[in-house]
Specification:
It contains three helices and eleven strands; from the N terminus they run H-E-E-E-E-E-E-E-E-E-H-E-E-H. The protein is α+β, with helices and mostly antiparallel strands. It has two domains: about 60 residues, Alpha-Beta Complex (Type Iii Antifreeze Protein Isoform Hplc 12); about 120 residues, no CATH class. Strands 5, 6, 7, 8, 9, 10 and 11 form a seven-stranded antiparallel β-sheet that branches. A two-stranded antiparallel ribbon has the order 1-2. The protein is rod-shaped. The termini are far apart.
Length: about 240
C-alpha cells in the first residue's frame, strides 16, 4: 500500500469516527430532550368557538397529546367530565379545555319541570340572563273591553333559569303581529302553577318581559304590587 492509499484509509477512518460521534451526539440530545419533556398524556382542545352558557359535548373538542409536565392541573383529560356542563364564558377555538372554563348545568329539583319560551330579544335582559339566574316575569294584557284598562302583571317571581339558547329570528309567517324580529329561547325550572302562568302569558299577553333578580334576593313582592294599571297608579299618586 503506497502513501496515497494509506492517507485515504486514514481519512476514511476519521470520517467514520466523526460520523459515529455526530450520531452519538444526536442521540444524546434527543435523549436529553425526551427526559426533559417526559411522557405525553391525553388532553382536549376546542374545535370551534363556544358561546358562553352553551352546552359542551364530545363534538366540540378533539383529542391531543401533550407532555404531562406541561399540562396544567385543571386540564380536562376525560370526556366524561363534560357531562352536564356548560361554558362558563365564551371559549375560543384551539383553546386547551380546562375545568375552570366550565360550570354545572342547573338541574331540576323534585316537583319541578322544564318549560321553555321565546323571549323577545329587545324586551329581555339582553346578554345578562344566564343559567342559574333568577328572574321575575311580567306580562302586559289589553283590557277585555274598550273601557277596561290595560294591565301589567307580575306572573311569576324568582323563576330559575336553567338554559339560555342562541338569538334567532322570529318566523313572521306564524306570528305576523309580533313587533320584535329576534328572540331568545329561555328554559325555566318551575312548579306546575308557575309553568301554567308562564304558558298563559306566552299565549295571551301582548308582551312578556323578564326582570333580573339580584343574586341572593329570595324575597317576593306583595300581592298588592303584582298588578299595575296606569289609572291605579294615578289614583295612588294623587292620594299621596
Amino acid at each position: 500500500m503506497n502513501s496515497r492509499q494509506r492517507r485515504g484509509v486514514v481519512l476514511l477512518v476519521i470520517s467514520v469516527l466523526c460520523a459515529v460521534a455526530a450520531f452519538a451526539g444526536v442521540l444524546a440530545v434527543v435523549g436529553n430532550a425526551r427526559s426533559q419533556v417526559g411522557s405525553k398524556v391525553t388532553a382536549y382542545e376546542l374545535t370551534a368557538n363556544i358561546p358562553a352558557y352553551a352546552s359542551l359535548g364530545a363534538s366540540d373538542v378533539r383529542r391531543i397529546s401533550v407532555p404531562k409536565r406541561w399540562l396544567p392541573d385543571t386540564a380536562i383529560r376525560d370526556l366524561g367530565d363534560l357531562q352536564g356542563k356548560i361554558a362558563a364564558v365564551s371559549l375560543t377555538k384551539g383553546s386547551l379545555l380546562q375545568s375552570d372554563m366550565m360550570a354545572p348545568r342547573p338541574e331540576l329539583q323534585a316537583g319541578q319541570m322544564e318549560l321553555a319560551i321565546m323571549i323577545d330579544a329587545e324586551t329581555g335582559v339582553a346578554g345578562k340572563i344566564t343559567p342559574g339566574a333568577r328572574v321575575d316575569l311580567f306580562a302586559t294584557f289589553k283590557g277585555r273591553r274598550d273601557q277596561d284598562p290595560d294591565i301589567s302583571k307580575l306572573m311569576v317571581a324568582n323563576a330559575e333559569v336553567i338554559d339560555v339558547g342562541e338569538i334567532k329570528a322570529f318566523d313572521k309567517n306564524t306570528d305576523p303581529e309580533r313587533l320584535s324580529t329576534q328572540g331568545v329561547p329561555i328554559t325555566f325550572a318551575l312548579d306546575v302553577k308557575d309553568a301554567q302562568r308562564i304558558a298563559y302569558s306566552e299565549s295571551f299577553a301582548e308582551h312578556v318581559r323578564l326582570a333580573l333578580v339580584a343574586p341572593g334576593d329570595t324575597g317576593t313582592p306583595a300581592q298588592s304590587d303584582r298588578t299595575y294599571t296606569l289609572s291605579g297608579d294615578a289614583t295612588t299618586g294623587s292620594a299621596q
